[in-house]
Design a protein that fits this description.
heterodimer, A: 262 residues, mainly beta, twelve-stranded antiparallel beta barrel, 13 strands, globular, B: 631 residues, six-stranded mixed beta sheet, 5 helices, 34 strands
Chain lengths: 262, 631
């Protein structure tokens, strides 16, 4: 647990992030200079059309209790953003709380901008910090998030730590409209790591899988109670670590929650 | 009881005191403020029920913009009103007058009024940041310009979302030469969409989830129904085709009845705005779509409507059962009921999530039967700009459309040749604005030309349109079609529905020159991100469009998106090339259907900085706007 930062890894990470951002922003750098007379503050000192204003949103896709009868836990998975059409700051947060102990805590702050060649995808780069009852870990994060063809929500992210570790996460979901307001959402999240780590209950390769099916009723778009079923699986050594800590590496549960956005 | 009067004559002046109107000062020069006359269109007083309120007539007007409490939905809300009214008072002008409008701002933020479709010096066009600095809080701005045209127009705020919150009203300009269309009664019908929600919240919701207000999407239920009626294979293929593009054919209007209450003259459907008539009278109905986002399909079951004017310009009468009126358009129709019964004026939103409604009745308090709304339209491959060149059969098999030109119409009918020196004084004065530009085609300007018909409907594809691709563009129409002979989607077969190809001006166009150049402009957007623009650029990314004063330009619009876009060019007429040759209709707002390619001619005869934009308010505010500089 010494964690002396490897300057070589840090530099490599910085280069990768910089290259990614330059790539993502290259589409807008060839813009012609605009007439100061018309854009921005026009000659009359009045904003003409404010098509580049800042918006902000916060969405908790999962805000739920999970139970298997005798044992209950709380789960949240949310994300929010603030910014314009082209430049946004994203926040992502997820974790479990059980008996006062927090696990799988993952907090991210990412810079986000639309990808020029994928009309519904954004590129994201930033920092992930594993904040929970276990030891903290800091990662650099690079990923994309958006709407794949056939309306699949798709969010793969790669992580690099300053200790030479690499990790990946793939999240996906799909909305099935049973009616206009009754919506079934199958969802999956997979976590991969390059190295096993006992204190964080992870193993190399596919370490953890969290999948579920939730049926929500949209009383409004912003308030949708749901019920469903979720399964969390830990694989390889991760299963051993989870068992050691008193958990169940193959953990199916019923869920009750509410999908919220602001 | 109402008195009959011929609309071709001037309305007698009345100075009836109006009770219940506060915060309004009448000034010298206001010829009349009329109340209680059943034969005139009354915008409703915002806070009350169907209490008739005034029309302002004359050449000097005082308008006050302020926040007033209203209740359209059963819940109290605040509107941005003119003289306390939503819609604001109808303004009656006379062609040839110079009107003065003193607009006082009692809002805490800057405001403005744009006179939609009126040809005037650009400093009085009312677009803050482009034509003037706006009207600051507490200040009064004096608009003053000669009225060089006649017809039905309207006014509205051009400041952010004030229009959505009620700042709009009708303008009726009496022609200087008596109108050839006789009628016994004359009503203004202002259609609009009201929301209790904060428009900024609506925009923010659309940015987060662009189908936020669409509660008529395809579901498992519609899949099963389609599989039952069309077969499982075709249904799956259809769903995969739309899914591959991440598009929904159920995407009709961005903001629906989930947020809107639709108003007719400020009255929600339950209030039943009523216009009186006696059987066999000819009634002129001046429809104005003052909505922010709602396209309406209008019909009066039991009556045939004769369309006599579009966007303030007279057209040869067209008999229809129904017409689609896009945002900011106006249509004048004549109806002549023969029976002593009630007729329902039924304006259903294009997405069928609600309607505005009123009644033509022989007495107040009568209610006509309300028809059920038609089935909701679905977008087609033609809307995606993916039709083939051999033509696409409209649903219902009523019409064919394709790449061919319209059948040729005979030239040279109608019109009264008249020499320029015979123009009235006001017209010559007005002509000083630009190089000899009349305000609009009319009996005095309709000269005979020897120039052949320029009304091409098949403008060639011009290469090298500087389309800027990126996240703000999610689709390019591969095969845009000419669809002017189609009324659009969503009309049951068997009804005669107005199309743009039907519009034939009564008077010849005023400028016989062929265009010197062409400007091809793509209407673009990203549905999912709710970004809109022209040629792939939002307003804030784009250079203005520059026109040389006096030049004649053909604008070619190609709609790459799946939504209709009513495109409005300020200050100059848009002469729609619909196959009617020199009798092409002069319009101020042209609705471009999804996947459509059309063209219009512009004479850049008035210098200044003009706005060019989609009149769907939330499209404009997310980038579908350009400055046009005529110099």
């Amino acid at each position: 647990m010494t964690a002396a930062p490897s300057s070589a890894m840090a530099r490599a990470w910085s280069f990768a992030a910089a290259a990614w951002l330059v790539l993502c922003s290259s589409w807008s750098t060839n813009a012609q200079p605009l007439s100061p007379q018309i854009t921005g503050l026009a000659q009359y000192g009045q904003p003409l059309v404010m098509d580049d204003t800042i918006f902000y949103h916060l969405l908790f896709d999962q805000f739920e209790g999970r139970t298997n009868g005798p044992d209950n836990e709380f789960r949240w998975d949310g994300e929010g953003w603030v910014g314009t059409d082209t430049n946004r700051l994203w926040f992502k947060s997820e974790g479990f709380v059980q008996n006062g102990r927090m696990t799988d805590g993952d907090q991210e702050v990412l810079y986000d901008r639309p990808l020029p060649w994928l009309r519904y995808f954004d590129a994201q780069a930033g920092v992930r910090y594993d904040l929970d009852s276990g030891p903290g870990r800091t990662w650099g994060a690079i990923g994309i998030e958006g709407l794949a063809p056939y309306f699949f929500q798709f969010e793969p992210t790669f992580y690099f730590s300053n200790q030479g570790r690499v990790a990946g996460r793939i999240q996906g979901s799909y909305d099935v409209l049973l009616t206009q307001r009754l919506i079934a959402q199958p969802q999956v999240e997979m976590n991969f790591y390059s190295q096993s780590e006992a204190s964080r209950e992870v193993d190399s390769g596919l370490s953890e899988l969290d999948t579920g099916l939730r049926i929500r009723y949209e009383i409004s778009r912003k308030f949708a109670p749901y019920v469903g079923f979720a399964y969390t699986g830990d694989f390889g050594q991760a299963a051993t670590f989870v068992r050691r800590d008193g958990g169940n590496p193959s953990d199916p549960r019923f869920v009750f929650g509410v999908r919220l956005w602001y | 009881m109402p008195e009959d009067h011929d609309r071709s004559g001037r309305r007698p002046s009345r100075a009836t005191p109006v009770s219940g109107i506060t915060r309004r000062r009448f000034v010298q020069g206001v010829a009349a403020v009329v109340a209680g006359l059943d034969c005139w269109p009354w915008p409703a007083r915002a806070t009350a029920g169907p209490e008739p309120v005034g029309v302002l007539d004359g050449n000097h007007f005082e308008l006050t913009i302020e926040r007033v409490p209203v209740n359209f939905t059963g819940r109290p809300a605040y509107a941005t009103a003119v003289n306390g009214l939503v819609p604001g008072p109808t303004l009656r002008w006379r062609e040839g007058d110079t009107v003065t409008l003193a607009v006082t701002n009692r809002l805490p933020q800057t405001t403005s009024i744009h006179w939609h479709g009126i040809r005037l010096p650009s400093q009085f066009d009312g677009v803050p940041g482009l034509s003037f600095a706006g009207i600051a809080a507490g200040e009064t701005f004096i608009y003053r310009f000669p009225v060089r045209q006649s017809g039905t127009y309207w006014y509205h705020s051009h400041s952010r979302f004030q229009e959505q919150l009620g700042l709009y009203g009708a303008i009726v300009v009496e022609p200087s030469i008596p109108h050839p269309v006789r009628c016994d009664r004359d009503y203004v019908l202002v259609l609009s969409d009201w929301t209790d929600a904060n428009p900024e919240t609506i925009l923010s919701n659309l940015k987060q989830q662009s189908d936020y207000y669409n509660y008529h999407q395809r579901t498992v239920g519609t899949f099963l129904a389609d599989a039952h009626s069309q077969g499982l294979g075709p249904t799956i293929a259809d769903r995969l085709m739309w899914g591959r593009m991440n598009m929904s054919p159920a995407d009709i209007l961005d903001v629906s009845g989930a947020a809107y209450t639709y108003l007719l003259n400020g009255q929600p459907p339950g209030a039943n705005w009523t216009a009186l008539f006696r059987p066999r009278e000819r009634i002129r109905l001046r429809f104005i779509n003052a909505s922010s986002m709602t396209i309406f399909d209008v019909r009066i079951p039991g009556l045939t409507m004769s369309v006599v004017q579009a966007d303030g310009n007279d057209v040869e009468p067209v008999s229809v059962d129904e017409f689609r009126i896009s945002v900011a358009e106006t249509y004048d129709v004549i109806v002549q009921p023969t029976e002593s019964r009630t007729y329902t004026i039924f304006a259903q939103a294009e997405d069928r999530t609600g309607y505005a409604r009123g009644t033509l009745a022989i007495a107040n308090g009568l209610r006509g039967a309300i028809p059920t709304m038609d089935p909701r339209p679905l977008r087609t491959m033609a809307d995606m700009g993916m039709a083939d060149m051999h033509g696409v059969s409209e649903r219902g098999g009523v019409r064919m459309e394709g790449g061919g030109a319209m059948p040729g119409m005979e030239l040279g009918r109608g019109g009264m040749p008249m020499k320029m020196e015979n123009l009235p004084e006001y017209a010559r004065r007005a002509a000083m604005l630009g190089p000899g530009a009349p305000g609009q085609p009319g009996p005095s300007s309709s000269k005979e030309f020897t120039v052949p018909d320029m009304g091409s409907m098949a403008a060639p594809l011009s290469p090298g349109v500087p389309l800027r691709l990126g996240p703000q563009v999610d689709n390019i129409a591969q095969m845009p079609t000419q669809r002017l002979a189609s009324p659009g989607e969503g009309f049951p077969p068997g009804r005669r529905v107005l199309t743009y190809a039907d519009l034939r001006a009564v008077y010849r166009g005023t400028d016989p020159r062929p265009p010197e150049r062409e400007l091809e402009i793509h209407l673009t957007g990203n549905m999912e991100r709710f970004i809109w623009g022209f040629n792939g650029e939002k307003f804030s990314q784009a250079e203005p469009i520059r026109l040389k004063l006096g030049e004649r330009v053909r604008f070619i619009l190609v709609n790459d998106t799946m939504m209709e876009h009513p495109i409005h060019l300020h200050g100059l007429w848009s002469e729609l090339e619909n196959g009617q040759g020199e009798f092409r209709p002069y319009k101020h707002t042209i609705n471009v259907k999804p996947g459509e390619r059309l063209s219009f001619l512009v004479s850049a005869d008035t210098p200044g900085q003009w706005a060019f934009h989609c009149h769907l308010l939330y499209h404009m505010e997310t980038g579908m706007f350009r400055a046009v500089i005529v110099a």
